[in-house]
Request: fold
Amino acid sequence: NAVLPGFHPTEMSDKIPAYQLERVRAQHVLGRSTDPTELARFVLTLSELTSVSGQIFNVDSRLL
Reply:
């Protein structure tokens, strides 16, 4: 399995200018970026599943 986490707020992304952050946020269907805690819960849940293999999970609400 693979997890595509997309853009999410981190200390590194705090350095990105506000106008660029707004541009990224506007691309998200949900109007928000990926929450790191939500992403971690997803990865943990996925790691516990024994019947899922060979999948790619896009945990990002942007349309790619």
